[in-house]
Amino acid sequence: MDFKTVFIAETMKNRLLTKYIFREILYPFFLILLILTFVLLMGRLLQLMDLVVNKGVGVFTIAQLILFLMPSFFVITIPISLLIAILISLGRLSRDNEILVMKSAGISLYQLIPPVAVFSVAAFVATAVTGIYLAPLGNSATKFFLIDMAKQNAGIGIKEKIFNDTFEGIILYADKIPVDGTRMEGLFISDNRLSAEPTTIVAKRGYLITDPQLAGVILRLENGSTHTVGTDLKTYKKMDFSSYDVFLNLTSTFQGNKKGEPKDSKEMTLTELFQDSKRLNIDEKQKREYRIELHKKFTLPLSCLVFGLLALPLSLVKNRTAKSRGFIVGLVIVIIYYALQLWGQAMGETGKIPVFLGIWLPPLAMGAIGIYLLTTAAKERSVLPLEILSAITHRRAQKESGKKTCKNVNDECN
To answer: What is the Cα gyration radius of the chain?
Structure first.
């Protein structure tokens, strides 16, 4: 057999192997992505259902809002789905001895890297595009979308028996709000927009009047009074009214840039974060926040490559019974990784360590561990953490198997 024939045969074998493993990872990846995204969405689902049932917001409007929220979810769920999908799919191949058959056919562990690497790079690109471009656009669109919703139904964010400071310069308290939200009763308002003469307003009831042309809404009060104390604390003015209008500004509330204030860091693009982190007219704490968000634009996608490195050697189990091992190992890695990330972010925010070190330490440290585990597993050397983890899962599986056998034989287990 000549060299050309051998080369073509090896190429076809590697191509078939890549397609097979890629397909094995693909199905659990999308399933886990769907489940994780739905779990994150459940945290907002009750609020969204309240908008539909009690506030009269349309289902199509809620669907648009969910669409705007999706990019911020995908930045987290794509890397986690990749990790667990690789652990589950390759763990199944190892459990069914398919990895052993591949080794018998002369296929080394390094030949399993290309399909995992291709999938990891694809997830890296998807997370990077989502985090750098789509997530800021989605967060910004969500904010403006809420402004439009508030103009159409201004009572959405106001709840009874809670001091509400959503509107700039105003603290609003309503003792009772009917389910339909058409009015408010027992109102107490602290109006500090005029710092020279802060005013307290008390009214029996109030109605929100919306106007799509305005950047806010009008709160029309009935049967109340205003109370103003002079700056010298010697003068006091009281005015009774049967009807009184208070303008509630929405634009400054949601945009936050009426007085030249910067946008929220989660709504800023990569260029905006870089430029604003270099500005001289902001305090050091704000600069650290921008730098943290800037570095996270790169480290969040990088976690896909780190998880790919870790998942490949950790998926090579020796026992055949620990079917849930992939999910358990993936959960442990995710908890450790994001705990390190939160710790580094907190240290960077407080200035105890440099921002760069705090944000880049988790992916670099976990990536180095992944390279070590991969090279060690390829040489078929034992690694103590892997042996301990395999023993724990094997012991747990044996215990569960023993319980099932006892139940089948004696119909009960002690």
So the answer is: 29
What pTM value is reported for the model?
Answer: 0.69
Paired tokens of 337? 């990784």
pLDDT, tens digit, 9 for 90 and up, residues 79-108: 999 999 998 888 888 777 777 777 776 777
Give the closest residue to 317 by CA, choosing from 125, 101, 94.
94
The pLDDT mean for the chain works out to 76
CB 218 within 8 A of CB 208: yes
Residue 323: the pLDDT is: 56
pLDDT digits (tens, 9 = 90+) for 12-40: 556 777 788 888 889 899 999 999 999 88
CA distance 72 to 356: 22
Q: Give CA–CA dist 58/127, Å, rounded.
A: 31
Question: What whole-number distance in Å separates Cα of residue 87 and Cα of residue 333?
Answer: 11
- CA atoms of 94 and 386, how far apart (whole Å): 14
Domain ranges of the chain: 3-149+282-381, 168-249
As given in the structure block, the two tokens for residue 335 are 């908890």
